[in-house]
Amino acid sequence: MVKYFYILTYGCQMNVHESEKIAGILKDLNYEPCNVIEEADIIVFNTCCIRENAENHAYGNIGMLKKLKAGKRSLIIAVGGCLTQQMGKASGLHKKFPYVDIVFGTHNLGKLKDYIIKKRAQKKAVIEIEEDNGEICEGLEPYRTSYPNAWLNITYGCNNFCSYCIVPYVRGRERSRRSKDIIKEAENLVALGYKEITLLGQNVNSYGNGTDDISFPELLRRIANIDGKFRLRFMTSHPKDFSVEIAKAIADNTKICKSVHLPVQSGSNVVLKAMNRKYTVEDYLEKVKILKQYVPDCSLTTDIIVGFPGETEEDFLQTCELVKNVGYSSAFTFVYSKREGTVAAKMKNQIPAEVSKNRIMRLIEIVNSQTREQSAAYVGKVIEILCEGYDDKKQMYLGRDGYGRMAYFASDVSHIGEFLNVKVEGANGISLACKKVEI
Ligand code: 5AD
Ligand code: SF4
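# 5'-deoxyadenosine complex -> structure
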């Protein structure tokens, strides 16, 4: 009889890719994916704790499984990811949800297979959290579900300790994978027909630091040199490590998308200092200038936090000003979320929720109007997109151009995985309404 798995993923792209690795482990144990949670024989939660709402979302969903488990004793429920890796959270989680069978952390994902086998043989829950030992787990074959896009980890962990951020505590110190492993994986992906590779790391710019391996821009060049038509993207870039060499690598290689995600977090030097971001607004703008000097049409996206402890109205207005000056093609905006164990959590002047809410609404309006303006400028143009999927609701295919702009078009036949030209007929906020161009 076929056994099924169901994975719930919270948080960022990094977690989405990690879930592909979890799926690979489950496939290896002869489980098959299913779309209905009630049909699953094993349910895995891949959690995130970067903001409180992601954490609460996971807790809520784990809570909802109590009934399902009561009616199906053979069901295995496993919880892993950033949330469980937080000090004391694993045992707390098991106390709160005693029907959870396996709890694992971010540093022992590679042992999930053993944990499942162990759990099948015993009644007792398997709760295993390991500390960061500086190792990288190679050889986990992901079960990829994002064709024609493929995620590829180049670094794990983070050394930056931005004062608001829990990641360095739950993901450990920065480790770079060996370039030969990365390049081999990229070659395989291209050979398998993947058309877009996104290199992943908390700070890809510092790839190779502390090793005798190649630098990030060199890695970009070598991957871009692989034969075949594909796109290369990377995220996330820390502004303090963004270099002229990276800008040059983008400029020199048509396969590297002219689109950089460069989180600024705040437009106030006082806030940036309190955030421990290690750059000023002026430094940031200098990096943007360098990028534009080599890649004038490069699109920029960013992350911004509002309501960081001590942020004044003046600080916030400086953030708005910076957003207007840089002209981002889109931005992820977040309300600061207090994370226990971080430096910022101990700061006295936490901002009231209603003030943060008001600020984020104003910021979103600025970002959206910029996005709308940029989308409107596309109308009438013919652009090359990579068709990435089909939107059931809209009943249209969707894809993105090299700058990352989303485009929708109708077609009777599937173009998923193809590069094709479309004419932009209308702009709809962040996305474009397009028509296939017959050549
Ligand atoms: N509160 C709000 N946003 C946060 N981020 C990281 N930590 C927090 C937090 N405590 C945001 C940052 C980062 C993105 C991935 O998440 O903007 O760049
Ligand atoms: Fe968190 Fe800063 Fe590291 Fe990004 S660079 S993961 S925001 S500590």
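# post-check
The chain is about 35% helix and 25% strand.
Residues 308 and 336 are 5 Å apart (CA to CA).
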